[in-house]
Design brief:
Chains A, B: It comes from Ferruginivarius sediminum. Chains A, B: Keywords: Transferase. Chains A, B: InterPro entries: Glutathione-S-Trfase_C-like (IPR010987), Glutathione-S-Trfase_C_sf (IPR036282), Glutathione_S-Trfase (IPR040079), Glutathione_S-Trfase_N (IPR004045), GST_C (IPR004046), Thioredoxin-like_sf (IPR036249). Chains A, B: This is Glutathione S-transferase family protein. 2 copies of one chain form a homodimer. Chain A has 222 residues and is of the alpha+beta class. Chain A has 2 domains: 3-74, 3-Layer(aba) Sandwich (Glutaredoxin), CATH 3.40.30; 85-198, Glutathione S-transferase Yfyf (Class Pi), Chain A, domain 2. Chain A is 53% helix and 6% strand. The first copy, chain A, has helices spanning 11-22, 39-44, 64-74, 85-119, 127-150, 161-175, 185-195, 201-204, and strands spanning 3-6, 28-31, 52-54, 60-62. A 4-stranded mixed β-sheet of chain A has the order 2-1-3-4. In chain A, α1 links the parallel β1 and β2. In chain A, α4 (85-119) runs antiparallel to α5 (127-150). The termini of chain A are far apart. The interface between A and B is medium-sized, with 23 and 23 residues.
């Protein structure tokens, strides 16, 4: 069976998990503590990062962006990128917005500071980073609401990789209880629709040992 | 005519310039001082970043990664991604290696510190960043040589987006004179082959006012 090497609170890994569930692909999850720099794993991906997908035949595809394009090419139904080049450009633009910009401005400042640092024994969270993450998230939640005012889903009429990318990031920040949902009704309504998709169930069942999520995390009527 | 909003020493912009030349697409270059946050430009790309491609009909496609996929879909000949999903996964893996990892570990530490900070009036280069860039580049030049020992071009038999991505980064670092070519013959031989391609001529003609490149920069027999 396909194997996905992952970490539970890693947005790129969550993106691929949801993507594969949307495409109804079976796979086994294997947690990889990347900071241990295990030799067998570095042979799979010299960059030493998750996610890495290993196909039944042994083909190895590292990186969330690369895996997403590969799965779209090899398992095109249902498409999560769109039906023509301009639609796909808009989906990719927004997916990248969340994969890169949201990640850099919000997720790294909150999730990596609070969780990854603990596992990597890198000391206490940096309070300046935490403050930056809390300040920056409002702008992104406003952007989600602005898009949803004009479209059914973030990139257009259809649920797409843009929604998956945004929800993958937000779900990690939500796990540490740092999404101010009550101040952003538009984004909350969109996220409630994402949460109710069966593809999202695995994400909502995640439990990091010693660090339970807030009670609303897995609640579909949060 | 197609317009590409760009900055001369921006690796993502250089990647798209070379890509369009390889595909023999005509385009006009417009320099965009992104730090001025010009309103008309922010309407094209709310992320406020170059490159942005504007098509003849007015379609707007921002971000180097998104533009590259869009051009491959709309102008597929010659392909710069490869002919089957696994080939394309390897090209995308390596392109991302240079777009993200090399950029973060080398280019930002050297080019952004020395050039971008000056234009943005952010003060002097950070000597710790400069040292990190100088230390990290060896590992990447070794990786290029290792790949070229086993393959004609970085990702396989054909010149691809992987070569373009790597050369786009290295050419910026080379402009500030910080590539230790003499210690890395394998990478130098590969870069000499890239430099000799007609698609690369525009890059080698770049001149940043007040900051001329070293004499070997545009020399094909450097």
């Amino acid at each position: 069976m396909r194997v996905l090497y992952h970490l539970p609170l890693h947005p790129g890994c969550r993106k691929i998990r949801v993507l594969m569930r949307e495409k109804k692909l079976d796979f086994e999850l294997k947690a990889e503590q990347v900071w241990e720099r295990r030799e067998g794993f570095l042979r799979l991906n010299p960059a030493g990062e998750v996610p890495v997908l290993v196909e039944d035949g042994g083909a190895v595809i590292p990186d969330a962006g690369v895996i997403a394009e590969y799965l779209e090419e090899t398992c095109p139904e249902p498409t999560l990128l769109g039906h023509d080049p301009m639609e796909r450009a808009e989906v990719r633009r927004l997916a990248l917005w969340f994969d890169a910009k949201f990640n850099r401005e919000v997720t790294i400042n909150l999730v990596d500071e609070k969780i990854l640092k603990r596992f990597m024994k890198l000391g206490h969270p940096d309070s300046q980073a935490i403050r930056a993450g809390h300040a920056n998230i409002h702008y992104h939640l406003d952007y989600i609401a602005w898009l949803c005012d004009r479209r059914t889903w973030l990139a257009g009429d259809d649920f797409s990789m843009a929604d998956i990318a945004a929800a993958a990031q937000l779900s990690c920040v939500d796990y540490v209880g740092d999404v101010p949902w009550e101040q952003h009704q538009g984004a909350k309504d969109w996220y409630a629709r994402v949460k109710s998709r069966p593809s999202f169930r695995g994400i909502l069942a995640d439990q990091v040992p010693g660090l339970p999520p807030p009670s609303h995390y897995a609640d579909l009527d949060f």
